[in-house]
């Protein structure tokens, strides 16, 4: 007994004597010369006016974790790294179950990793806007109350939210100065669902401000609050995609297990493709939009961004559910487990529509050959010649009405702005900091005088056009899915309200990621995930960004 007491006492002394690490400071720097070089970029949207945020102080963001991270060393980080980096959810949960990891250790690892890279001027990605100050305490609670069955769940795992999704723990800014004090909100419906599943909300991810419906031709991934999000595969070289830029960048750089993005047209598919991660844009109506800063109640949907199809299926399962406040959600989808039969997926015998002109892309062409070799049936076709006239009008009129509804019903009651015009006027007071790229799209919203009757006609016509673009070849050739590249056909899928799944398919000679996008009919997410899983297993091309391994 005395020997046991002695050993226990010795362990307590060892733990208490653990060396306290020196604090890490986030510092600003003069980026003038960096911006001058950037101004020579061949892509106009990559000619940045700033990189660092004028409003965000990352020292304040990390203040709640100073003491905990003071006793988490680089050696601790390296010891945990093999069990966390690039691991899928079942692998992480197995390590927890076997006592190798704890949820507290996983959270500390991600906090340390974010600080490690974001405090380095040569590696920072500016993908994080806020962190949940209670996350370590919450992780400890999850460790104490682990359920018996957790392998294929989000329980205890830290995820990020795009910063246009409400959560009690942190402000919801949409990247905009006008919402910097949007602090006291209820959780969005999907956040409540995630918390019910046991997920931990690690923080908020940067985004293209107002979900990239604000400034004309401005950089993807820029927001006044978060600064300029950068692509880990080519920092300041490749675009991040948008508007869920920070969500995709953070997942690609292993800053969290997974992240929630949102899409109106291409805003999940684009950044997922540009950052070599898996992005699912669900059918409009599968997931609730309540508590989400909107562009369009007609087209908006949240969706999961992950490193693998397995994680995407688990993540989607945790978010679904009927929300009585959102008339678009469908009760019939409430109890689907998208992970359950995933690993039995096969490409053999499935029929894929291949758009002929895309075969000029060598990586796409190679991917199609791999699918064909695996037994998939390839049907090449020329798509219908259909235009999307009125698309911007749809966005203008929806946002003109939907954003005030959010501000009235779901924003902090102290937020005084009530309209698009209010936001424009507020930004004009200090446009250099609040709207350095202008606010042309917001100005267009105010000027748009489309009548209610004309608007309804435009919506109906666009919806029919989108459906015709996909349904005609799908029905004609009895297709399981149409195969596209990145967000090339996101606009058609948006107005048709068809689901899309972006899966990494390779890298250009420059190193820039490129993805294969699967498109199916409404509420065929289970089919998409199965096809995506089979393709992922067949190709397995995703690789970690080399400077972020």
Tell me, briefly, the overall form: globular
- Uncertain stretches: 1-16
Kindly identify the CATH topology: Amidase signature (AS) enzymes
Percentage of residues in DSSP E strands: 5-15%
* Strands, total number: 13
In CATH terms, what is the architecture? Answer: Alpha-Beta Complex
CATH class identity: Alpha Beta
| Largest sheet, spatial ordering of strands | 1-3-2-6-8-7-12-13-11-9-10
Count the domains.
1
Label the structural class: alpha/beta
Q: The biggest beta sheet, please? A: 11 strands, mixed
Q: What does this 3D model show about the protein?
A:
The protein is of the alpha/beta class. The chain has a single domain, classed as Amidase signature (AS) domain (Amidase signature (AS) enzymes, Alpha-Beta Complex). It is 39% helix and 12% strand. It has helices spanning 2-16, 32-38, 58-61, 66-70, 74-84, 89-97, 103-118, 135-144, 189-196, 209-212, 245-252, 269-274, 309-319, 362-373, 391-409, 420-428, 431-434, 440-447, 452-476, 490-496, 525-539, and strands at 128-131, 158-162, 200-205, 222-223, 227-228, 258-263, 278-281, 301-306, 351-355, 377-381, 481-485, 500-507, 513-519. The strands form 2 sheets. It has an 11-stranded mixed β-sheet, sandwiched between helices. The termini are far apart.
């Amino acid at each position: 007994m005395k020997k046991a007491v002695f050993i226990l006492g010795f362990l307590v002394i060892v733990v208490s004597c653990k060396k306290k690490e020196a604090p890490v400071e986030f510092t600003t720097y003069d980026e003038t010369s960096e911006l001058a070089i950037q101004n020579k970029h061949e892509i106009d949207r990559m000619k940045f006016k700033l990189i660092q945020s004028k409003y965000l102080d990352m020292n304040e963001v990390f203040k709640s974790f100073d003491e905990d991270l003071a006793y988490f060393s680089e050696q601790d980080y390296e010891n945990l790294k093999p069990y966390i980096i690039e691991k899928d959810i079942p692998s992480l949960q197995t390590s927890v179950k076997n006592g190798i990891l704890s949820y507290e250790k996983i959270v500390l690892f991600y906090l340390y990793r974010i600080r490690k890279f974001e405090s380095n001027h040569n590696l920072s990605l500016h993908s994080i806007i806020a962190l949940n100050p209670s996350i370590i305490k919450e992780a400890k609670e999850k460790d104490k109350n682990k359920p018996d069955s957790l392998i294929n769940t989000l329980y205890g795992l830290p995820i990020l939210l795009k910063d246009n999704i409400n959560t009690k723990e942190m402000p919801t800014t949409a990247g905009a100065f006008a919402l910097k004090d949007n602090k006291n909100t209820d959780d969005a419906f999907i956040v409540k669902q995630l918390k019910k599943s046991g997920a931990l909300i690690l923080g908020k991810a940067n985004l293209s401000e107002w979900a990239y419906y604000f400034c004309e031709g401005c950089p993807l991934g820029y927001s006044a609050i978060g600064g300029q999000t950068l692509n880990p595969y080519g920092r300041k070289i490749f675009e991040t995609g948008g508007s869920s830029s920070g969500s995709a960048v953070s997942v690609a750089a292993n800053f969290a297990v997974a992240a929630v993005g949102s899409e109106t047209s291409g805003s999940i598919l684009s950044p997922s493709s540009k950052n070599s991660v898996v992005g699912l844009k669900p059918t409009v109506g599968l997931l609730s939009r309540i508590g989400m800063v909107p562009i369009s109640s007609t087209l908006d949907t949240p969706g999961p961004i992950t490193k693998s199809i397995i994680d995407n299926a688990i993540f989607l399962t945790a978010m679904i559910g009927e929300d009585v406040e959102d008339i678009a959600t469908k009760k019939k989808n409430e109890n689907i487990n998208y992970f359950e039969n995933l690993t039995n997926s096969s490409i053999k015998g499935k029929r894929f529509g291949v758009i002929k002109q895309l075969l000029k892309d060598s990586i796409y062409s190679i991917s199609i050959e791999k699918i064909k070799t695996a037994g998939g049936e390839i049907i090449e076709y020329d798509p219908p010649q259909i235009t999307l006239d009125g698309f911007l009008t749809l966005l203008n009129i929806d946002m003109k009405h939907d954003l005030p509804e959010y501000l009235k019903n779901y924003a902090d009651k102290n937020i005084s702005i009530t309209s698009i015009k209010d936001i424009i006027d507020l930004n004009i007071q200090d446009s250099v900091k609040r709207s350095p790229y202008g606010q042309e799209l917001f100005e267009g919203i105010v000027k748009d005088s489309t009548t209610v009757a004309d608007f309804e006609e435009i919506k109906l016509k666009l919806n029919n056009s989108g459906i015709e673009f996909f349904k005609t070849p799908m029905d004609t050739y009895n297709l399981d899915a149409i195969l596209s590249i990145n967000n090339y056909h996101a606009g058609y899928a948006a107005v048709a309200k068809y689901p899309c799944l972006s899966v990494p398919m390779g890298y250009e000679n420059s190193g820039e990621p490129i993805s294969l996008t699967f498109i199916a009919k409404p509420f065929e997410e289970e089919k998409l995930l199965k096809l995506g899983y089979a393709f992922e297993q067949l190709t397995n091309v995703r690789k970690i960004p080399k400077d972020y391994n």
